[in-house]
Every structure is written in C-alpha cells, then in structure tokens.
Amino acid sequence: MIEWLTTTNHKKIGIMYLVATMAFFVAGGLLSLLIRAQLAVPNNTVLSAQAYNQVFTLHGTAMIFLVIAPFGIGLANFLVPLQCGAPDMAFPRLNATGLWLFVLGGLTVFAGLAAYGGGAASGWTAYAPLSVIYEGSGAGQDLWFIGLLMASVSTIITAINFVVTIFLFRAPGMTMWRLPIFTWEMVATSLLILMAFPSLAAVLAMSLIERHMGGHFFDPLYGGNPILYQHLFWFFGHPEVYVMILPYFGIVTEIVATFSHKPVFGYVGMVISAFAIAGLSLGVWAHHMFTTGAVSNEFFSAVSFLIAVPTGVKFVNWIGTMWKGSIEFSVAMLFAVGFLLNFLIGGITGVMIASPPLDYQAHDSYFIVQHFHYTIGGGSMFALFGALYFYFPKIFGIKLGEKMGRWVFALMFVGFNVTFIPMGFMGMEGMARRVFTYPATGHLPLLNAISSFGALLIAAGAALFFVDVVVSLRKRIPVPDNPWGGYSLEWLTSSPPPEWNFESLPPITNRRPALAE
Amino acid sequence: MPLPYPPFERLTPGLGTSAHVEWLSNPASTHGVLMRTDWYVFIGAGIFVGLYVYACIVWCLFRYRRRTNRDAEQFEGNTPLELIYVAIPLLLVFGLFGVTYALEVPVDRVARPVPNRIGVTAFRWSWEFQYPGRAETFGTPNAPPTLYLPEGETTEIDLRSADVTHSFWVPAFLFKRDAIPGMTNVFDVTPTRTGNFTGRCAQFCGLDHALMSFTVHVVPRSAYDRFVASNGASVP
Lengths: 517, 236
Fold this sequence. Notes:
The structure holds 2 protein chains of 2 kinds. Helix content of chain A is 68%, strand content 0%. Chain A contains 17 helices and no strands. In chain A, helix 7 runs antiparallel to helix 8 (226-243) and helix 10 packs antiparallel against helix 12 (308-322). The model of chain A has no long low-confidence stretch (mean pLDDT 95). The model of chain B is unreliable at 1-20 (pLDDT under 50). Chain B is α+β, with helices and mostly antiparallel strands. Chain B has helices spanning 8-11, 30-63, 79-108, 221-229, and strands at 116-123, 126-130, 136-138, 146-150, 155-161, 166-170, 175-179, 185-189, 195-201, 213-219. Chain B has a 5-stranded mixed beta sheet, with no helix packed on it. A 5-stranded mixed beta sheet of chain B has the order 4-10-9-6-7. Chains A and B meet through helix 3, helix 5, helix 10, helix 11 and helix 12 of A and helix 2, helix 3, strand 7, strand 8 and strand 9 of B.
C-alpha cells in the first residue's frame, strides 16, 4: 500500500492512472444514466432542474477532464518508456506529482457535490458571467475551478515529462523515425498540451480571482468582457478535443497494424498528419463561437475544414493497413473497427458544423451533443476499451475473456448508436442541449425514449466489461510475453514487465523490433 | 425542392401530430431557405463520403479476414495513393468552403435602410420584446412571451442580454444568435409565411434555461401595424 502511494515507477503510476480514470468513468457513466432517466419522457421529474444542471455539468467534466484525456496520459505513462526502450520516465518524481495532483483534483471537483448550495452547475464550459457571478454562488463552483486547476497543472507537467522522455531517453538504435505511432501521437499531444493548457489554467485562475477578489475580467459593467472568457477557454478547449483523440489515434493504429499482421501503412503520413492536426487545432478555437457575432466566422470556418484533410489521411492509412492483410478479429480489433465506424460519423458531422450557416442551427442543440459524443464516445471511448483488451495482458500478465469481450463490444456498439443517432434529429427539431425537460411535441418523446433505451445497452456493456475483469483476475490465465504478435518493444519484455522494463535489448534496426528474427 | 418528412412520422401517428415540428424542408424565413441549400449540400457530401469510406472498411474487413491459405502482404505504404487521398479531401473542403462562404455573406448582411426594428432583451429566464413606438412585452418561464413579426418584411433584431450569455434560437428560421452582456448583436430576419413558430434560448443560462422559450407569431403587415400603432393593445 505504502509502496503504491510513494512509487515513482512509471508502470505503477500508469496503472494507478488507469484505475482512477476507470473509477471516474463509472461515476461519469452513472451520471449519464441519470441524464437519460430524466429525459426518457417529456416533463419528467426524476431530477429537479437544480439537480439536473449539476448532473450534466459533472458528467461532462468527469468524462472530459477525468476520463478520456487522463486515460490516454495514464496509458502513455505505462507504454511510452517501454516503447522507447527506456527504464522509466525522465522525471519520475514529477510524474508521481502529476498523478496525485490529478487524483486530488478530480476528487476536489466531485467534493463539490457535498458543498452547501450543491456542486458546480454551469456546464463543463463554465462560461462567465454565469459561472463567476450567477450560478453556484456556493463552494461547489469554487471547488470545480480549484480541482480543474490542479488537473491542468498535472497535465502540463506530465506533458513536459513525455517530451523529455521521448526526445532524450530512447534506447540505442531507437531513432525517432522508428518510434511506434502511439509514441509519436504522444509527442504531438504533449506539445499541444504545452500550448493550450496554460490558457485553461489562466482562465480558471482568472475566474477564481473574479469570484473572490474583484477581478472583473469578464464583467462588462467594469470594462470586462464575457467574450474574453470564451476566447481563453476555447483556445484551450479545442486543442483539448485533440488531446482527447490523438493518443487514441495512436492506439487504433497499433491495434489495426498488429491484428492485420502488417506494418503501419503510410508511417510518415501518420506522423505528419498528427502534427498537422495538432497545429491546425490551435487555429480553430472560435468555431465554438460562430453564433456570438464577435469573431471572424470565415477564417475559423476555413481552418476548421482543413483539419478534415489530415484526419482523412489517417483514415486512408488505417484502411491501407488492413488492405491485403490477414485480419484477426480479436476483441481489441473489434473495438478499433467500432472506433473507425463511429469516429467517421463524428468527423462528417464535424465538417458540417464547421460551416457557420449550418452551425447557426446546430450550435448548442442536440445535433452538437450527437457530434461530440461520436468523436469522444464512439471514437475515443471505443479505442479506450480496445486499449484495455489489447494491453491488459501486458500490464497484468493476464488475458481478458475474448468471448465475454465480444458481448461487451456488441452491447456497446449497438447501444452507442441507438443512443446517439436520434440526438441529431432532436437537434434539428429544436431541442437545445443542457435542458432538464422538453415539451411533448413532434418526435421528441419518441427520439428521447429510443436514446434512453440505448443508454441502458451501453451501461450493460460497461457492466459486463467489469465482470470480465473480475472473472479474468480470478482465473489468472497467464499469457506469453507477446500474445498478439505485437511489433513494438513492449512486447519483447515479460508480461508484466520487470521493474526496470528490460533485462536486455536486442539491436534495434527497424520499426518492428519485436518481430525481428 | 422540399425533402419528404422523415418516415417515422407515419410510424408514430400519436407522437408526430404537433404543429411545432420544424424540419429542414420548410424553413420559414428567406435566410432559412438559403441555409437549407447549405444543409442539403453538406448532407449529400457527408452521405457520399461516409458510404464510400464505410464500403472501403467493410470490404477490407471481409476480403482480408484471416484465412489459412494466405499470409499478409508486407508493405509499408503507397505514396501515389496517399497523395491522391490528400488531394481529394483538399478539393472537397475547398468546394464546401466556397458554398459556405457564398451563403454566409448574405445571411450575415444586415439590410439598410431597416423597415422595422425590434429590440430583444434576454434575461434569466425569459425575453423582453420592444417594438417601434412604446409597445413592449415580456414573459416568464411559465408564461413564455410572443414575438410578433410582419410577414414578408425584413425586421432587424437588436439583441441584448440583461445578465448572462443567452442565445436567441428559432429552429424554423434555421438560425440562432447569442445575446451577450455588454454588446448588441444585430441581425435581420424576413419571415416567408404566417404562423406560430417555437423559439427558445440555446445557450445554457442557469436554473430554468430549459423553460426559456417564446413563440414567434408571424402575422400579415396590416395586423402588425395595428399591433404597433395600438401600443400592443390590439393583439393580432
């Protein structure tokens, strides 16, 4: 116990990240079930308006800041030193600091629920002046700002650690152009974090100053400007969505290449497109502000469209990797395919709402809710489960149940689409996001009922996953070092890897050192 | 060219009967009709690209599934193919941006001189409408107000907020614009037919955001003039 609390070993820290993010995933998932329960029928009273607003705020906050982004970081903590052939991260104690700041930050946000006046209730975007003056005058909103400030600092220092580790701690022969795509995606992700997260830390700190020390940054009565909050927030917020997807692009690439039993198709294109996406994502933030009438819609629309090009390159390369391969349908591969099918819908709806005349209707409606769930949920979350099935044997030395895993995938894939396809139509019928109730007009009752039913299927799939974990941990069927025929360095060492990762390393002469004869 | 109504209308007779259902096929403003073209272009392009990529994925998964009599071919890329697949999306998004730009400019332009001007103030959690002269109406979350607009006339909306950021959304116009404290957002709307249309706040604004709705009642010019001339006494 003390050993785990005080460890600076990257693998133990990585495991603790994964456990913590999965715990937050369960909490965030239960909150989403409350949302779907309330919206299952019109004019429902399962939750009061006040409770509903706290629930959706915490659901979004948990899934974005405490699940999808830090799971990628946690998995990278485990994998990046192994894939580089390094014994540990460059700054082990900084790494432990990052973990505990993240865990305490997450608990601080959740602690808001117990505060007088309830938890934060101004959405995960916490727009000023709503969040700083009006909503949640109690401590809940303060704890939200403070908790996320801790999480943002954690993310920044961990990103520094990744960059230094990958640039300076590679094994002899592991040149940059031989790194696995996952590690490359973490380079792009980390650089993006270093550009974007200081803006989040600033806006959170400014909000706290405005709440308690008369900052007036966002208050027009004192010369402040609510638009300033949106600029600072989205300058972080849009890169954040790529922080939530680039690591998962890497995971999907590794899974698809491994189970197609082929090298990655267009390796260089994969790397360039990751940096193109990261670079462009720094210039699109105001597409979240098309309806403010305060930004250049043409500029931000044009740059947003351009992101489709490098993302398209990735799709071509994933399909190219499967092309003429010998595709093995493991559970991890099924989740990777689910990622491809779902994320494509998120990408296409994303191009639609990059067009301001479309966004004038879609913005802040359930159309947007559908869009970002297809990217973060249908995309990142499916890759997350693919990663769990793919790396569980390496991390714990135990295989997860491939048979039960198929049911997990089937329930989640069907459930996900049943839940989120109707939301696009709800948005077109005029249902705004973040509403605790809706009138019994048009197709809204039918569409919402279908959506809530789908949420139950996703929940059943997630529950079955945890059953699978418990059953597998009980059975403890040992696995070989390289159960899938993986090609990167982590598959060369034992499962689980020894404390210093490698007893010895062979000469590294190509991109697939684990397959070298 | 109106699109047919989604087929589940016929499957759910009891649920699809309300007059409040708005769909792309029948926007109620001139800008809405313009933007509908944008929707059709993007929906068409999206379906085409989506089906093409789905077909590629499913074909690969089926054709190259693991079989005992064939090994995976070991190759690392195909540069001409990759370049083609950079060029095609690039051309596609250039085209889509062209359509976007052509439609956005007229939608964002505010007509001068203004035939009719209405001040709209959003507050937590309802709306206040100020017409030319002294006519003025406002609502509450439980008694949403009605905004009267003349049919076939261009009305300028001067949008303000009294407290936090709201958003003025009329789905039948396919349009929304934010009401931001400290600034006035100006846009115009030209309704194409009379009738009642639902409007609501789209930007989350706190406790009763869900109840912050209003009705847009588009009336003939003569009825609107009587309404304004009587300072709101003669309700159309």
